[in-house]
Amino acid sequence: MSSLNAILNTASNAVTAYQAAISVTGQNIANADNDDYSIQSANLSTTYSVKSRGNIYGTGVTVSSVTRSVNQLLENTLTSELSNQAALEEARVYMSSIEDLFSEDSDDSLNTLLDVYWSAWEDLSNNPSGETEQNAVYDAGFALTERMNAIEDALSDLTDDMTGEISSAVTEVNSISKQIAGLNLAIVTAESSGANANDLADERNSLVDDLGKRIDIDITVKEDGSYLILTNGLPLVEDGISYDLSIKQ
Q1: Nearest in space to 60 (alpha carbons), one of 16, 93, 91
Q2: Which pLDDT tens digit goes with each residue over 208-245?
Q3: Nearest CA among 211, 89, 110, 118 for reference residue 155
Q4: CA gap 122, 112 in Å, rounded
Q5: Count of CB atoms situated within 10 Å of the CB of 88
């Protein structure tokens, strides 16, 4: 009877283990279109053995762990490239606006107005008492001044826009950093108790990508699984602590 119980127990362990493995496979399939999800694998291991009448018998199989298929080096490289891409795209927007201000493709471009202005002075130098030439210098100077003032106003507006975007970005960076710090604690706590923290780790990676789009960061994975995140060599997130950024004029 004890032998039959052992066989049934071994079979029960196997069914439970492979049900769990199938559940992990189903989770992978369900998240096929989820960019923030990392493929998971159920790792099987032999259960404890028992000794009976001088013989050693196995008791089946169990799921020892469920791990994420993640290459941390590639993850860090991706975050870095996302940061570079975001910086270049933002710079392109503002540089394009500045380029439009100094475009040479219009009659009121700065270069065209300067040419008219200096040409008017040249004409006046040839006929200093000429009323027409004098008026031409005045009109050319007035048009040039208006254009330069317009450019100055536009650059000032761009500066205000940039200041507003930086302020908004700093608020977002501080918020994301707090969330990552919280997930650091949650992941370390879960894994130290033997629980599965894979979904929390995926959530943290997604937040790190969002953070990298807003500020240049360096990531180090500590031995306990938490992230140390630096910006310009200074800590932004360490263990369960985040350090707020502020704007200084």
Answers
A1: 16
A2: 989 988 888 888 888 888 999 999 889 999 989 999 99
A3: 110
A4: 15
A5: 11
